[in-house]
Amino acid sequence: MATRLPQLDGGLFLTDGGLETVLIFHEGIDLPEFAAFTLLDDEAGTEQLRRYYRTYAELARDQGLGFVLESPTWRASPRWAAALGISDAKLDELNRGAIALMEEIRSEYADLPVVISGCIGPQDDGYRPAATLTADEAEAYHATQIGSFARTAADLVTALTMTYAAEAVGVTRAATAAGLPVVISYTLETDGRLPSGQSLVDAIQECDEATGAAPAYYMVNCAHPTHFADVLAEGEPSLERIGGLRANASTRSHAELDEAEELDAGDPADLGARHAALSARLPRVTVLGGCCGTDHRHVAAIRDAWPAA
Question: What is the Cα–Cα distance from 258 to 43, expressed in whole angstroms?
Answer without folding.
Answer: 30
